Amino acid sequence: MKRPTALTLTAALFAGACGTDQADQPADEMPEMTAAEHAQMLAGGTQGEVDTTGALVRQTVHLTEEQERALGVVYTTARTETLTRTIRTVGEVKAPEPNLANVTPKIEGFVERLYVASSGESVRRGQPVLALYSPQLVAAQEELLTARRLADRVDSTSREAWRSAQAMLEAARRRLAYWDITAEQIAAIEESGEVTKTLTLVAPVTGIVLEKLVVEGQQVTPGMLLYRMADLSSVWVEGDVFEQDIQFVRVGAQAHIEVAAYPGEHLMGQVSFVYPTIDQPSRTNRVRLTAQNPGLRLKPGMFATIYLDVTVGTDVLTVPMDAVVVTGERNVVFVHDTSGTLGPREVVLGARAADRVVILSGLAEGEEIVAAANFLVDAESRLGSTAGDMPGTQHGALEPAEERNSRPPIGEHQHD
User: Fold this and answer.
1) Half-sphere exposure of 247 toward its Cβ, with a 13 Å CA cutoff?
2) Does domain 86-96+232-313 have CATH number 2.40.30.170?
């Protein structure tokens, strides 16, 4: 007995499945298939046309009402609408950079007393935070008092002398002001006429002390970070949006924010900035929201879920995504014409929202297309046969059970 080749077995099985007369021929007498015919067979049909590359070409299909019901074919209409969708991402609450402030000395000295002794304390703008002793501050106070006394003694009738004394007084005031000594402290020194051992540094903003990096008695130098503070009356919420969705995010758009600390509550924010660069490993673009924070409920470091309601398109042509057969190289829909014929139509897809997709070209408003079972229709279109030759109608679900059961097994058609 001659052992059949793999190609002969494949041809025999396919011939048996299609119920053709070729199944009754001996395997040794089966005609050799061409490369194009073999490509057709592997694609699932023997009657479809092939192009120069050997790929099957879809053809029109005609179905009866019974076949449509059996296959579950459903039709829908391409319609024009305003398409919206919700972009969901996760983010983190952050202190706004413009609302951050540091307390740093501009002069060398020693911390005599801390008025704000721990991180997390609330402070008001202008509130004392520490008392600083510095020999330079003492010398500057003495210069101020000397200039004050000289300005008081100079006769205003001597215009040049008076101007010179006033200039010296203003210079002494400016020197202290440049070292972050407040105008109130300078006025108190002039009024009392006495030099004080220490002068006070105050909070530059109203907010929360994020970091405290100083202790009493510590020597400090110019530029040393002593406190970091932040105004948290508003916060930033930053999240990453996928590259394909960034086209829909606009500055000024409203967004919903949810945090685990307040389940069920929807806080509102607004897109204030879209970063100009893409993160290459994740293919995402960072987006910043600004949200008001009454009661300081949103705290830096919290994770948040961001919901952006965006408009994909206004008056755009859309169809259900399930109606499109995506092959990887092209996108096809099956158009149902007035004669009942289903014809393949290549379309160009746009943005997707939920279960619908924008059609950029290839389809017109009001055209009826297959919305369900389109993969079965696509398989029949690739076969290129008529409705009566459908595998499902002759040898599949549409065939009566008694006929299907009476047909001999495929193996009985093979011959040694």
Assistant:
1) 6
2) yes
- Mean pLDDT (the chain) is 80
Q: Which CATH class is domain 99-230?
A: mainly beta
Asked whether the beta carbons of 116 and 129 are under 8 A apart, the reply is yes
Query: 3-class SS at 15?
Result: helix
Q: Name the band, by pLDDT with cuts 50, 70 and 90, for residue 402.
A: very low
Question: What is the DSSP-derived secondary structure letter of residue 311?
Answer: E
CATH 2.40.30.170-classified regions of the chain? 86-96+232-313
User: Vertex 190, ends 189 and 193: CA angle to 5°?
Assistant: 80
When pLDDT is averaged across residues 325-344 and rounded to a whole number, the result is 84
Q: At a CB cut-off of 8 Å and minimum separation 6, what does 181 contact? A: 137, 199
Backbone angles phi, psi at 369, to 5 degrees: -135, 165
Q: pLDDT value at position 383?
A: 65
Q: Is the dihedral of CA 44, 46, 51, 53 positive or negative?
A: positive
pLDDT of residue 407: 52
